[in-house]
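During the first year of the project, the team set up a workflow for recording each protein of interest as an amino acid sequence followed immediately by a discrete structure-token representation. This format lets reviewers and collaborators read both layers of information side by side without switching files. As required by the reporting guidelines, we include two representative entries from the current panel. The first entry is reproduced here exactly as it appears in our internal archive.
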Amino acid sequence: MLELLEDVLHDAIPMLPFLYITYLLMEYLEHKGNAHFTRILENTRKLGPILGAILGVIPQCGFSVLAVGLYLNGTITVGTLLAVFISTSDEAIPILVSQPKEFNTLIGVIVVKLIVAIIVGYLVDTMVRHHQLKQNHPIKNIHADCEKEEEEHGIFYIAFIHTMKIFVFVFVINFILSYIMDAIGQDTLRMFLANGSIIQPAFAAIAGFIPNCAASVILAQLYLDQVISFGSLTAGLITSAGLGLLVMLKMYDNKKDIIRIMLILFMSAVVTGILLQLFF
């Protein structure tokens, strides 16, 4: 149990600076009305999915958390958010890097996810062009009594309080999920992933939704053990958006929007995975 607790802390602690920066930026934009920063975002808006996809490639769970905050604050589009989610690979990258023989696999995963992220990002943004820079997303418990708190403590204090609340929530949920995964065991996961089946990418995509960096580690290891295909590995890593989705579930009231985002991720992962499994 102590080892499990240490593993969860190891996964959660790196997100703290990203979470704090996210809240600090959201508070600053909300209360200071930085018109210059807004103009910069408007000018680079068309490059959003490309920049988001490139940013997501960096093996760090925190970038998906940062992207969620920017989306909820209306500073990036849903296409850019999806691009970050799709290209994020977090802990799977170091696992593959540690295996020199899997260099081609590593490059393949990165390139495929980068391409899919950009295509899906622009496709979704084209379909929802009515999204404005300030989207007025209903965000849970972020700006309630903020004006009074800001007068008393300032935005740095407010951002810190929000960061700790979300961190505790993520830690508790992550611990519960890790305990369940530990109890289930890798053998059960192998059976669930339907070794050798054409629909394996769909099961891998579902496994990728587990909001824990351990999920992508297990997917990478199962690929190295030849339990899942390259297509299934890619599908699982497309839906493996780090802790971003978990934070979004806590911060965002619009559950329909979250479901739509998850469905787009899932369909992108399944289609990509099956195509790779059939032709590569």
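The second entry, processed by the same pipeline in the following quarter, appears below.
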Amino acid sequence: MRKITIFDVFMIILPWILWYFTFDVFYSHFIYAMALSVSVLGIISLTRKEVREKYKSCNALCILLALLIAIILYFVFYGGNIVSAKLGLEGEVLYVYGLVPKGLLSIFLLALIGVMEEAYWRGLLQQVILEKKLNVSWLFAPLFYGFVHSVSLNLILVVAALIVGLFLSFTAEKFGLIASSIVHVVWIYFMFLKILL
């Protein structure tokens, strides 16, 4: 187990500050604020050699598995949308989807968000700080990802982030950050661009 540094503590706290500004202060420009926030986290993470080393190669089978995981995750959310509607919580779900405008810029920004989040959440936080330095199982990483969304005061979003985090953390652990980035981006496209159902 390696020693936790001031940089590590700062990088654990920073998403809470950025998510607050993204979800509360600049929520009317959500996609731009989120793209900026995760770019800050991702770029800082990618300056670390130990994060860049976590990008394992991803062959054709790895890509197919990543696509399959993204599709499974989409259908988990499709079922979750049905359940949330039955519970009268569809307004919470629709609020989240309504934060992303249609257009080519959104397509680019959604991909950027998915890739940069993986560099930070599954790269720096999960595989370097939690696993390598704290010797904690990857199963704890989704808790950080889920609970940081509590700044939105949207319970559905917190639960959704916990579920997404579990899928993405598993993928990063088993197949690497390229695979988890593929899952993240494809799933985001399915959810926000309504590519499937």
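For the second entry, the following points were noted during internal review. The radius of gyration is 16 Å. Residues 6-193 form one domain. Both points are flagged for discussion at the upcoming steering committee meeting.
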